[in-house]
Amino acid sequence: MENYEKIKKIGQGTFGNVWKVRRKSDSKEVVWKELDYGNMSDKEKKQLVSEVNILRDLKHPNIVRYYDRIIDKENTKIFIIMEYCKGGDISHLIKRCIEGGQHIPEDQIWKIFTQIIEALYECHNRKSGKILHRDIKPGNLFLDTENNVKLGDFGLARIMGKESLYAYTNVGTPYYMSPEQINENKYNEKSDIWSTGCILYEIASLKPPFEASTQMALAKKINEGKYNRLPVIYSEELWRVINLMMNSDQEKRPSVQDLVNFPQVSLRLREKR
Ligand SMILES: CNC(=O)c1c(C)[nH]c(/C=C2\C(=O)Nc3ccc(Cl)cc32)c1C
C-alpha cells in the first residue's frame, strides 16, 4: 500500500470501502476498493482470484479500468486498484436532477444507454467466455470528465452473492432484480438487459420502475410488471425500448445485438467513429 497515498473515502462499495488514492509513481488519481477475504472458504478465495483476473482482461472505454491488485496477507485484505471516474456515479446524477427539479434531456439518456450497451456488448460477446455483470444499477455506472459512462464494480457479485458469508451490511434494495432472479434465482444475459431497462426508466423518471418498503412487496410488484409511464417530455421510442427490455418473459427481451441495431443506438455508435 506504500505505493499509494490515501486522499479520501468516496464510497461504501457493495463489497467494501472505496477510497480515492494517488499513485506515488506518477501522481495519478485512482481508486482502490478493499475486500476482506478473512472469512472466505478456499473455494470462495479461488473464485475471487478468478473474478479479479477477469477484471484485469476487461479493457473497454465503457468499463471501469482495472489497474492492479494488492494482497495484504497480514490483514487478509485484497485491494483492487481501478480507474477514478471524476463524475461519480449515475445515482448521484439522478439525485442532483431531483434536487434541481429538472429532467435529463432525452439525447443524453440515449447517449448513456448507448454506452451501457457497448459495455454489455463487450461482456456478453467475449471470445474467452461471456461475463454477466449481475449487479447493474445506477450506483455501478460511473461518469468520467467527458461524461462517458463506465460500467463498474464487476462480477464480484458472483462470489459475493447471497450464498456467501458476505451478505453485505449495506446490500441495497434489489430494485433492478429481474423476475427470473426473484423466482428461479437464475441469472443470464437477459437479466442484465432487464436491469438496464430499469435503469433507463429511472434515468428518465428519476425514480425506479418498482418501489416498495419491503423486499417481499418489491418482488410482488416486479412479478406484476406494472409501472407508470415516462414523463410526457420523452418520446414513444424511448418508452418502447424500455418496455421491450422490461418484458417479464426473458425470451422476448432484446439481446445486446438487437439493441445495437436500434436506430437511436446505431446512430450514436456511428457518430462516435
Ligand atoms: C459522490 N460520488 C463521488 O464523489 C464518487 C466519485 C467521484 N467516484 C466514485 C466512485 C468510483 C470511481 O471514481 N471509480 C470507481 C471504481 C470502482 C468503484 Cl466500485 C467505484 C468507483 C464516487 C462514489
**Structural class estimated from helices and strands:** alpha+beta
Bound molecules: ligand 5Z5
Query: Strand-residue fraction?
Result: 15-25%
Unreliable stretches (pLDDT < 50, length at least 5) are 159-170
From the alpha-carbon coordinates, what is the Rg to the nearest angstrom? 19 Å
Give a short account of the largest sheet.
5 strands, antiparallel
Tell me the strand order in the biggest sheet: 1-2-3-5-4
* Percentage of residues assigned to helices: 25-40%
Structural commentary:
The chain is α+β, with helices and mostly antiparallel strands and 273 residues long. The protein has 9 helices and 7 strands; from the N terminus they run E-E-E-H-E-E-H-H-E-E-H-H-H-H-H-H. The strands form 2 sheets. The protein has a 5-stranded antiparallel beta sheet, with helices on one face. Strand 2 and strand 3 form a beta hairpin. The chain is globular. It binds the ligand CNC(=O)c1c(C)[nH]c(/C=C2\C(=O)Nc3ccc(Cl)cc32)c1C.
Describe the secondary structure blueprint for this structure.
Blueprint: E1 4-13, E2 16-23, E3 28-36, H1 42-57, E4 66-72, E5 77-83, H2 90-100, H3 106-124, E6 141-143, E7 149-151, H4 179-184, H5 189-205, H6 215-224, H7 236-245, H8 256-260, H9 263-272
The structure holds ligand 5Z5.
